[in-house]
Every structure is written in C-alpha cells, then in structure tokens.
Q: What sequence folds into this?
C-alpha cells in the first residue's frame, strides 16, 4: 500500500491567508478557530496542490474559488503569488516535496510603454526541481490519481459528491461482484433470461424490454380504435339490398343492348350508304384529276442556267481584291512618310555633330597649371573619336532606314500596278453584266379542259352533299334522341355498379377486421411474453440484491447501502442510497455524516491500496470521533484565534 503521510504544509498568499506553516510530522492535526479564520483554506490548499481545484471542485479564480488574496474592498492584490508546498513521507529514503505557484502573466505589447496583464500561469516543482504540468501529474499519478485523492481526503465526496451510478460502480468493483451471467447460471429458473440477454447485462436487456413494451402497448391500445374505424366505415352499408341491386344491373344491361341495336339499324340505312359511296367516288375523281394536272405542269419545266449570277460573283471577288490592294497602298504610304521624316532627322543630327569643336579644359583642376601637351592631345583624340563614332552610328541607322524605304517603295509600285489591273478587269466584267440577258419566265399550261372538268366535279360533289344532308336530317334527329337515351341508361348503369361494388367493400372490411383481431391476439401474446420476461428480470434483481447487498455492506463498519428500491407496481428500481441505521444520508445529522464519510474512506483506502491524509471540515459536529488508522486533519470551529495542535 502507498502511504502518503503529510509531514509539512506551507501556505503563502492563498485566498485570505498570507502565511501558514503546519508541521505535522506524519501525525494527526487539529486546527481550531472562529469562522472565516482560514480553516477551510487548508483543505482548499491541499486540494489545489494535488488536483488543481479547490475542495469543492472549482477552478482557480472562478466565482467559487478566488485563489488570490483580496483587498477589503474586494479588489485583487496585484503581484502576489499564491503558493502551496507540501512534504510527504512516501515510505522511501527521502520525502516527496510538492510545490505549486499561481502567477500572473504580464506582457509588453508593441507600441506600449508598460506591460499589461494577459492571464495566469502555474509553476510546478517536485523536490525543488521545476516540472511541466504533464510531468507533475504523471509523477503524482504514480502515487495517487486526482479522483482517488478527492475520494480519500473528503468525507462528503463519496456519499454526496458522486452520482448514484458512480457510487454503485465503485461498490461493485470494491466487492468484485459476479457478472449477471455468472449469477443467473447459479439458478435454473433464470435460464430463459440468460439465453435472452446474450452479450448485454440484465439492466440493459430490461431497458430494451421496457422500450419494446412501450411500443407493443401503444400498438395494442391503437388496435381497437383501428377495428372500430373499419367497422364504422361499413355500418351504413348493412341495410343495402344487394340482390335487388344485381337484378337492376341485369335489367339495365338489357336496356343498353336494345338501344345500341337501334343505332346499328340506323347506321345500316341503304339510301344513305349509296349516297355516301357516290360522294366518295366523286371526291376520288377530283383528286385524280388534280394529281394528273400537277404531273403535266411539272413535265413542262426546263432547267435554265443564270449566267448573270456567275458574272456577279466574279465582280464581287474583284471588288474585294481591289479593296485589299488599296488598303496595302495606304499602309505603305504611311511607312514611306515615316522613313523620310526619320532620314531628315538623322541628317540634322549629323550636321550638328559635324559642327562640334573641342572645348575641353586644358588646366589642371588641382594645381591650376596647364596640362601637358600629351594629355591635351589625348583629350582631343578622345573627342574626335566620340564625334566620329556618333556620326558612324547615324550613317549605319540611315542605311537601314533607306533600305526599308526602298523595299516599301518597290512594294507600293507593285500594289499600284495590281490595283490598276483589277480596275480594268472590274470595268470589263461590269460591262459584261450589262450585256448578259436575264432568264425569261417559262409558260406552264394546265391539261386541256382541266378547268371545265374540275368545275363539273366540284358542282357534282356539292349536289351530292346537299342530297346526303336531306336524307340524313330525319335520321340524325332520331339517332340523337336514341344516343341521349343510351347515355342516360349508361349513367344509371354506372351508379348501380358503384352501389353494387360496396358489397366488395364489406367483404374487404370484414377480412381486415379479422386481420386486426388476429394481430391483436398476437400483440397481446407478445405483451404477455415481455411482461413475463420483465417479471423474471425483477426476480433476478431481487436475487441479485440478496447476493450482493450483504457482500457490499460487510465491507463497512457503520454505513450500509440500499442498491434497489421497491416500486408500487412490485418492480425494482436501481439506486445506490447511503444509509445509517436505516436512515437515508440526507436525513442524518452533520456529525453522523462525518462518521459515515470516515467509514467509507477507510474501506476505500484498503480497496485503492493507497492512504492519504483525511481532512474533516466542521469536525466539531462529532462528539465521539471514531478511532482510525488514517492520518486525520480535523478543522474545528471554536471561539478563539487559530490554534494548531498535533496529536
């Protein structure tokens, strides 16, 4: 077991305490004094050193944990550095020294004369050697982790600071409780449950069953409503005489067949059929005559070539070529003018250079004496060489310009010749177009007597149409009357069929009701099965309670734990309530809560195989402090200044 005995605790500028040195030397310690004198500060200092938070789990400089000292008006004392140092005997050759300092960060930003506050940082030391935060935590975790430290130093942490699920998990781990599968295997009545849960725990399986039951029950509650809906949908159809409807449908079919037969007789009228055939023959003769006339006119058309189009295309091409030659001439004229201007500029520059005379200085600027003749001669030669060099460059550039000028003038003459030739040819083609005759329109004639024959046929067709109209006028009215009667008969027939079809609706509805009744029986059986398995889960929970509750409670001297609550419906609800003499933790006195906490810490100390100092705040609540092997720091309220007593 790791046993961390606190030898010494030093506190500087921490909360409201400027300086406090406690020499424990591994013994128990009692710190007494008035409220607000700084007793709880000892607990917060130890917690912050070991976990980075105060005894209630608050972060530094949060609303609940003002780690830096304050002035009487509540403002922070600037520049102070809260520091906590603790020395532990850990059973090795030398003690373990831990130190943590909370510092302000000040940064001087660009353009500002004075540094500004930018936050806080924490410095860590182990055995006076600076460490990074990660190193500090890793080294400390070799002895005890943060959560275990809080559990073993605070009598209120386990019973009041954890969720019941967290307490329950620790207790199960403490007693090495058998798994659900192992417990179910011990009793044959739980064999169906063991098979059903598979890889899940009984609690998880039970949660799934409850979810299934809710859905199945919702479905079961909805089925009677659905059955009523289907039954109500056919309630109005119960009084319909479907046999009478069927007879009416059969009779109406006969009426429709009779009316349709009358229409066939009217359509088979012989006089009308003959007149229709005669009309069709005349229309065919007219179509044949018109087709023959079209063929005759097409045979008279002779293809002719339009020579004027060929000449016009040649004229258009010559105009395009002439425009190209003229545009090139304009461009060359501009280039020739630029070349002549540039040559004139070179001549002026050359003449100006030719007139230049040597005017260099012949006196030494340093001593004021005349330069030697050889120096003067060198200057004159240099002047003449530069003058000649510039003239030579002008001559060379002039030659290039003259060459380009000659090429452009030659090209200009060629384009002018081409333009003249194109103008002559264009004039010739224009004259040719004037003298080319236009194509004369061909004379196309119809067949002989076409107009007379066409008119005769059209007159005959008009006469036949009129005669057919007279014949059909009486028949048409009679046929219209029969068609109207037939439509009324069909409408009545359709209405009767719609009424008769409701017989199928009744059959389908009855079949659907039977399906829903069968589904209701199936769902009820499934609900019974789920309830049976839920009851088996509750039986197992009680069996599990009997198996593990005594095992867990045997680990503690005073406290007991209620791991399940009996519900009104007879089921069990998971929980983890801390109890003392049958009373829930929330109802016992402050002194009893401390006793419960000490009992729990002693057991957990053995379980985690590590021992750290136990800090008991408000220890004055306990009149008969139980004996314990733990190093204990008691914080007691008394109407005195702070007093420290080793025990």
A:
């Amino acid at each position: 077991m790791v046993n961390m005995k606190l030898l010494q605790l030093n506190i500087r500028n921490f909360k409201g305490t400027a300086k406090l040195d406690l020499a424990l030397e591994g013994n128990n310690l009692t710190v007494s004094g008035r409220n607000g004198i700084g007793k709880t500060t000892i607990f917060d200092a130890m917690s912050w050193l070991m976990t980075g938070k105060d005894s209630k789990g608050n972060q530094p400089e949060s609303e609940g944990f003002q780690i830096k000292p304050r002035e009487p008006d509540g403002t922070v004392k600037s520049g102070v550095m809260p520091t906590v140092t603790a020395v532990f005997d850990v059973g090795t050759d030398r003690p373990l020294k831990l130190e943590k300092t909370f510092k302000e960060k000040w940064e001087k930003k660009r353009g500002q004369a004075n540094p500004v506050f930018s936050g806080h940082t924490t410095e860590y030391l182990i055995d006076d050697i600076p460490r990074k935060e990660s190193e500090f935590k890793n080294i400390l975790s070799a002895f005890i982790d943060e959560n275990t430290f809080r559990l073993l130093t605070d009598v209120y942490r386990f019973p009041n600071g954890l969720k019941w699920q967290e307490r329950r998990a620790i207790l199960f781990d403490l007693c090495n409780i058998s798994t659900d599968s192992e417990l179910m295997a011990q009793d044959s009545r739980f064999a169906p449950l063991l098979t059903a849960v598979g890889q899940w725990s009984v609690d998880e399986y039970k949660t799934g069953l409850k979810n299934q039951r809710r859905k199945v029950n919702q479905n079961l509650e909805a089925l009677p409503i659905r059955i009523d809906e289907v039954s109500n949908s056919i309630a109005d159809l119960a009084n319909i005489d479907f046999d009478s409807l069927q007879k009416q449908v059969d009779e109406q079919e006969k009426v429709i067949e009779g009316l349709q037969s009358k229409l066939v007789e009217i359509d088979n009228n012989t006089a009308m059929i003959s007149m229709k055939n005669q009309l069709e023959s005349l229309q065919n003769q007219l179509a044949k005559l018109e087709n023959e006339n079209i063929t005759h006119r097409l045979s008279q058309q002779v293809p002719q070539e339009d020579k004027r189009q060929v000449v016009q295309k040649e004229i258009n091409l010559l105009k395009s070529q002439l425009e190209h030659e003229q545009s090139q001439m304009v461009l060359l004229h501009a280039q020739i003018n630029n070349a002549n201007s540039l040559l004139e500029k070179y001549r002026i520059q050359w003449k100006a250079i030719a007139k230049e005379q040597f005017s260099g200085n012949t006196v030494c600027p340093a001593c004021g004496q005349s330069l030697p003749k050889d120096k003067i001669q060198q200057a004159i030669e240099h002047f003449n060489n530069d003058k000649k060099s510039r003239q030579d460059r002008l001559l060379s550039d002039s030659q290039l310009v003259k060459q380009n000028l000659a090429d452009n003038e030659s090209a200009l003459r060629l384009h002018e010749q081409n333009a003249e030739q194109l103008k002559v040819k264009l004039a010739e083609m224009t004259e040719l177009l004037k003298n080319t005759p236009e194509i004369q329109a061909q004379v196309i004639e119809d067949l002989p007597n076409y107009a007379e024959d066409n008119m005769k046929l059209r007159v005959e067709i008009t006469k036949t149409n009129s005669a057919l109209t007279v014949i059909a006028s009486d028949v048409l009215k009679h046929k219209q009357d029969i068609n109207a009667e037939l439509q009324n008969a069909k409408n009545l027939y359709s209405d009767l069929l719609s009424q008769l079809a409701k017989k199928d609706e009744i059959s389908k509805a009855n079949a659907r009701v039977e399906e829903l009744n069968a589904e209701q029986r199936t769902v009820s059986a499934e609900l019974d099965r789920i309830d049976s398995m839920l009851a088996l889960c509750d039986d197992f929970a009680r069996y599990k309670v009997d198996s593990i509750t005594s095992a867990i409670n045997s680990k503690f001297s005073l406290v007991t734990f209620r791991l399940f609550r009996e519900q009104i419906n007879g089921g069990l609800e998971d929980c983890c309530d801390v109890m003392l003499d049958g009373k829930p933790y929330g109802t016992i006195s402050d002194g009893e809560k401390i006793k419960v906490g000490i009992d729990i810490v002693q057991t957990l100390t053995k379980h985690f195989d590590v021992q750290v100092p136990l800090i008991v705040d408000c220890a004055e609540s306990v009149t008969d402090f139980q004996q314990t092997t733990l190093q204990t720091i008691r914080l007691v309220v008394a109407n005195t200044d702070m007093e420290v007593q080793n025990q």
